[in-house]
């Protein structure tokens, strides 16, 4: 629930259950096989995204061939996402694409980017080994209804910084202090490496461990508790009419707006 006030918007910090949160467990290879057709279709629907993708690809090539476990498509997806014009629109769509299977299939035209970002973060986590990060996120123009002890998700790809002073450049109305164990340091793939960005996926769950206020400003402490997803390999499943939307073996699922930092 969102409530507007004179100067700020009040947002409930909750599980963000309307978000599209697929982790693609067990179907990453099958999804990769479908990418060319999916990208072609979505780039036709979104010429601006297609243009920004090409620009990101050029920037990636100019950096030279780094030693990385990522495929070129995964790396370019991260560079495209970290373009401000992309992250804001993309995350607005991710936050509501999980309202229903129909919403995801028919109205969410960023499926390829969602998969590539999720797959890139998983690939980097696998290559680097398990690790947690203490990060910060600054938010402007929003206050949050947050109760210590609650379990919550961001429900979007959430940009944070390893440095508090950088996070506060994006806003100080609410500052999150987050211990994330699913978020990944992506600075070497970012369009703005100086931001020292750690990107948190939509499906990571957190416990609210503290909330403090100073005037109109707030600090919220979050600690990772695991993951939760309503959706699992959704693009590869059959809809109720029997139409096949992808190929591969379907698996069963395991199962808010946050303006600030990137995507404000």
Q: What this model shows, in words?
A:
The structure is a single chain. This protein has helices spanning 28-45, 47-62, 72-81, 84-97, 101-107, 111-128, 164-167; strands at residues 2-4, 9-12, 133-139, 142-145, 151-152, 158-161, 174-180, 184-185, 197-200, 204-214, 217-227. The protein has 264 residues and is an alpha+beta fold. The protein has one domain (2-236): Toxin ADP-ribosyltransferase, Chain A, domain 1, CATH 3.90.176. The chain has a 5-stranded mixed sheet. Strands 1-2-4 form a 3-stranded mixed sheet, with no helix packed on it. The longest helix is centred in the N-terminal third of the chain and has 18 residues, at 28-45. It starts with a strand and ends in a 37-residue tail after the last strand. One of its GO terms (cellular component) is cytolytic granule. This is NAD(P)(+)--arginine ADP-ribosyltransferase. Belongs to the Arg-specific ADP-ribosyltransferase family. It holds the Pfam family ART.
